[in-house]
């Protein structure tokens, strides 16, 4: 019995050590992923500096202008004197030199710059540019980072259109995107050239999605083209302009660049993204009794639960880890144009994660409120919901 007990003790200790080591490895991977998410440009200065020359435009951009187009400032990167000047309103937000100082401090979320002799020599972007915001704890647009939250204030089209090297034929079209939207099917960058994917067709911008609450979802894109790392690779190489390789014959995109600075970082980047929980709704932001009634509607006459299956509130995994279960645009009453440019030509059931935090809704932002979402499906699916049922269903959606 003593031998068995001793052996059991050794086994338990070994398991505990293994668990500790495994957890430690996971933590290290997540920490690496956070650094990649926040600060790694993947060498995309080749697009933003060498090709577009965005750094030249930023030379004259004031902090006030930067905040107006949705750029955010990480308060935790600011030294105490700057915070004090900001709080006492002694910081001149109309001075471009302050923008350069913020870039030097690596305080502008999603931008990485090299500044020497008071000149911006290069600029690159990171994942955090679109998929982080701040809590406005110091001032509007200035606060602690909220990684994974979509930056729905960010006017990507306007920012890109400022770049001297940006193709003139796209400027007005990109400016029409508006805050919080981007068209990832418009073009690809191959390391040298910006290649239009659908020449002559209008751009189809979509809402920047959240990068939190992904654990268990498996597919990130609106159209379920591939697992999360597929999309990270596509965006990192072809949209951010990172120095790496991506190929998908289904959409006719092939970019090869060596060394590949993107692919080796996909695993830790994914680990960090999967660690980001969806933020819970603020206290008092929904009616609990109404939400309880709305949950009954959701799983009953509303038929929402047949596609938005708890706990991830999507059915995309029904086809297995490699074969997303999707819906045709006609089936869900969605605009088919964006889907037609994807690899699947269909739409994934969107996971319902922190809906209170990121209106507008649907891939194109066509529903400005949750009630508009409910009314859309009430009409498309001929549900015949009463006004009370709709109100309760909205309260339930606000609680997720």
Give the biggest beta sheet. Answer: 2 strands, parallel
What topology, given as strand order, has the largest sheet?
Answer: 1-5
Order of helices and strands: HHHHEHHEEHEEEHHEEEEHEEHHHHHH
Arithmetic mean pLDDT: 93
Structural class: alpha+beta
Question: Judging from the principal axes of the Cα atoms, what is the shape?
Answer: globular
Please give the count of helices: 16
How do the helices and strands line up, and which of them pair or pack?
Elements lengths: L1 H38 L5 H7 L2 H5 L4 H6 L4 E2 L5 H8 L8 H9 L6 E6 L2 E7 L2 H4 E3 L7 E2 L1 E3 L8 H6 L9 H5 L5 E2 L4 E3 L4 E3 L9 E2 L20 H12 L6 E3 L4 E3 L10 H9 L13 H12 L29 H4 L3 H5 L29 H11 L6 H12 L2
Helix pairs in contact: 1-11, 10-11, 12-16, 15-16
In brief:
The protein has 400 residues and is an alpha+beta fold.
Describe the structure.
- This protein has 400 residues and is an alpha+beta fold.
- The chain folds into two domains: 236 residues, no CATH class; 76 residues, Cytochrome c-like domain (Cytochrome Bc1 Complex, Chain D, domain 2, Orthogonal Bundle), CATH 1.10.760.10.
- 38% of the residues lie in helices and 10% in strands.
- It contains 16 helices and twelve strands.
- The protein has a two-stranded parallel ribbon with strand order 1-5. Strands 2-3 form a two-stranded antiparallel ribbon. The chain has a two-stranded antiparallel ribbon with strand order 4-6.
- A hairpin with a 2-residue loop joins strand 2 and strand 3.
- The chain is globular.
- The N terminus is likely disordered.
